[in-house]
Amino acid sequence: MIRFDDRLRATLAANLSAHDRCTQPLAGRRHAAVAVVLVDSVAGTDDGEAVGVAGGAAFLLCQRALRMTRHAGQFALPGGRVDPGETALDAALRELEEELGIALAPQDVLGWLDDYSTRSGYLMTPAVLWGGARPALKPARDEVLGVYRVALQTLVDAEPRFIGIPESDRPVLQLPLGDHLLHAPTAAVLFQLRQVALLGHAGERVGEIEEPVFAWS
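Now predict its structure.
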């Protein structure tokens, strides 16, 4: 079990600082930001279902509402499009508060992961945030079907799978978490969180990870 404490916070910040983050130009794509929010994993809470190893540090994972016009029911990190005049951090913090009711500040940023370019025309910038032990979650039900506290130990213990598809020469990542398989772009962000922030493999890239065909539009 990975303990949720100041030592973990310092380790994650140091590992992310040692990582030379890969940025990309927009090049006609729309800019989006996502928040990887670290909290304490508390089984039995009424604001988020625990997944994986009970107790210890976790990250928040959303399931998109079934009424959404795109990618309904899929698992995703809180986030969305960067509005005109916003920075990626502005957008990540705004979307986090709008979707989950959690208000964080710039000083809660532990670091950043690589930009990831999606098949649907977005450039995704992930911020890693320290959310506090037990933030009160107030999911926006028009956007969020459910919220899960996924133990970081479960992410470390996961066995990522890379498979080939005829439509691309890049490998598709399947990241098993609980009873589900996550795919890029969410799985790419979480895989890099695992490799860089948790395991200390600075410089591990995810730009060549492919999305499954159903996520291309």
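The domain at 6-156 is CATH 3.90.79.10 (Nucleoside Triphosphate Pyrophosphohydrolase).
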